[in-house]
């Protein structure tokens, strides 16, 4: 193959000197040029990913298998750059959608300039507090290598991006942050607790994004209606506490040396969504779609990927409202009777799950219940097969996978769709007392994580719901998955072995769906 009368190897050598914008322009010339640019995946795209200041400073498969290369370095770089832009989308000028309504708006609209400021010896400012009070909104504050300490809490009142210069570990902050602005991003920093408080970062408004940060000896607290997105962060004797958060994403993070639970999620996911909810949901859905390729078929992928993020639901006719599934305040399904007195499907009591809006219409979760309620049936008492009909061969009673369960059992589909809130995937929990604690009606999704050398890996208490899918849990001193007090959820296709107690400990009215 030759392009422009030059050998292919020579073109690859020439293109290896180009930066990201130039490679994008070359790939848009023709299909041949695009294939040539894509063929640089193992060389130039790998260099751009590992050397880009805007992408992650750690390998894509960190911390589970850092030595394993991703299927595509170009795709990993694209996803990293898109994730890093979420925090700016609060300002419509940074959005890719034209909001002016003008026909030529996308062509002539002026993009805002990102102001930069340098903090440290020889920089624009000597103190981080002075720099944050001086720079305009949506500025990028670079911290030169060194240790920065503040004697009182630093309040973030304007959107800002704080980035550490140099390699990870050269910039350390002994600061306690409180966010009071719509959006903040922290990158390439070592965050340690200050002498006057154990809280490293706390927010109850807006959206916070942390990329490639090390957190030591402190806590990060996020309360509703705030949202958070943590990527490639390391928690050493530190913890993350989420309270009634509508949506939170924890990806490719490492938790070690915790004295309590590394990740604590409590409270039912708030229905009060902030501006970042839709953007973060779209990013998670794209990630789950990439993971589901080859795992789920088309008919089950829609239910697997629908995390309850859609604001709009399909309209349901009024004649389908009879026998709508009802849930108690604790989320457990109970039976109801129709007008004739016959047992129908489970149904919901008025309360935490069903709420009418001011216009009298059902909420979007009600639409899901109505849509799937007539498909969830329960066997009457005494209907179990006895006698000759009960003799089944071993092949007929083989365990079913989650894919088969979602394809055939509508109850499993409904349960998967109900569990949303905190999404934890590709994380490592090791060498500590606790892993994940979910309580007080909280919702947690745990996917493709590893729990090892802990006292307790996963605990689900007090009507909480948890989805535990394809995790590895081993060498824990107590049980792998611990459920109590009406807790529930789905536990499927996990590798649980070599633990001190039971693999899955279910007691006190807990009722999860367990699949091998």
TrEMBL record:
Lineage: superkingdom: Eukaryota
Repeat as UniProt keyword: yes
Keyword annotations: Repeat
PROSITE patterns, per the entry: FBOX (PS50181)
One example of a Gene Ontology biological process annotation: ubiquitin-dependent protein catabolic process
Domain F-box stretches: 1-48
Database matches in PANTHER family: F-BOX ONLY PROTEIN, F-BOX ONLY PROTEIN 10
Name of the protein described by the UniProt record: F-box domain-containing protein
Upper classification of the organism: Eukaryota, Metazoa, Chordata, Craniata, Vertebrata
């Amino acid at each position: 193959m030759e392009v422009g009368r030059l050998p292919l190897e020579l073109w690859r050598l020439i293109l290896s000197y180009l930066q990201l914008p130039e490679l994008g322009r070359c790939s848009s010339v023709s299909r041949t040029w695009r294939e040539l640019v894509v063929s640089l995946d193992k060389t130039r795209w790998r260099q751009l990913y590992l050397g880009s200041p805007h992408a992650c400073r750690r390998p894509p498969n960190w911390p589970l298998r850092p030595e394993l290369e991703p299927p595509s370095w170009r795709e990993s770089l694209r996803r990293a750059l898109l994730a890093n832009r979420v925090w700016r989308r609060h300002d419509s000028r940074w959005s890719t959608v034209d909001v002016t309504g003008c026909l030529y708006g996308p062509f002539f609209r002026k993009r805002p300039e990102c102001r930069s400021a340098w903090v440290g010896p020889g920089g624009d400012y000597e103190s981080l507090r002075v720099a944050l009070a001086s720079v305009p909104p949506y500025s990028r504050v670079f911290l030169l290598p060194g240790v920065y300490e503040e004697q009182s809490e630093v309040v973030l009142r304007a959107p800002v991006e704080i980035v550490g210069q140099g390699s990870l570990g050269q910039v350390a902050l002994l600061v306690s942050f409180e966010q009071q602005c719509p959006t903040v991003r922290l990158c390439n920093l070592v965050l340690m607790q200050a002498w006057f408080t154990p809280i490293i970062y706390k927010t109850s408004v807006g959206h916070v994004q942390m990329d490639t940060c090390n957190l030591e000896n402190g806590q990060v607290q996020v309360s509703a209606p705030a949202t958070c997105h943590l990527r490639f962060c390391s928690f050493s004797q530190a913890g993350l506490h989420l309270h009634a958060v509508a949506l939170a994403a924890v990806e490719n993070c490492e938790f070690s040396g915790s004295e309590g639970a590394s990740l604590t999620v409590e409270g039912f996911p708030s229905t009060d969504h902030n501006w970042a909810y839709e953007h973060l949901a779209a990013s998670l859905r794209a990630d789950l779609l990439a993971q589901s390729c080859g795992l789920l078929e088309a008919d089950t992928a829609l239910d697997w990927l629908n995390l309850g993020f859609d604001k709009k639901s399909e309209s349901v006719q009024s004649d389908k409202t009879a026998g709508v599934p009802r849930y108690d305040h604790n989320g457990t399904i109970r039976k109801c009777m129709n007008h004739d007195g016959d047992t129908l499907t489970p149904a919901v009591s008025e309360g935490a799950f069903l709420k009418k809006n001011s216009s009298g219409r059902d909420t979007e979760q009600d639409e899901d219940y109505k849509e799937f309620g007539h498909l969830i049936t329960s066997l009457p008492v005494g209907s179990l097969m006895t006698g000759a009909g009960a003799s089944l061969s071993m092949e007929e009673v083989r365990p079913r996978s989650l894919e088969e369960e979602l394809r055939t059992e509508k109850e499993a589909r409904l349960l998967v769709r109900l569990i949303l809130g905190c999404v934890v995937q590709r994380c490592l929990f090791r060498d500590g007392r606790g892993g994940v604690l979910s309580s007080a009606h909280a919702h947690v999704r745990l996917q493709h994580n590893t729990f090892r050398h802990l006292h307790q890996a996963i605990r689900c208490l007090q009507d909480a719901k948890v989805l535990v899918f394809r995790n590895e849990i081993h060498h824990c001193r107590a049980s792998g998955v611990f459920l109590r007090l009406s807790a529930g959820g789905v536990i499927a296709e996990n590798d649980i072995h070599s633990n001190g107690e039971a693999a899955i400990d279910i007691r006190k009215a807990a009722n999860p769906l367990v699949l091998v």
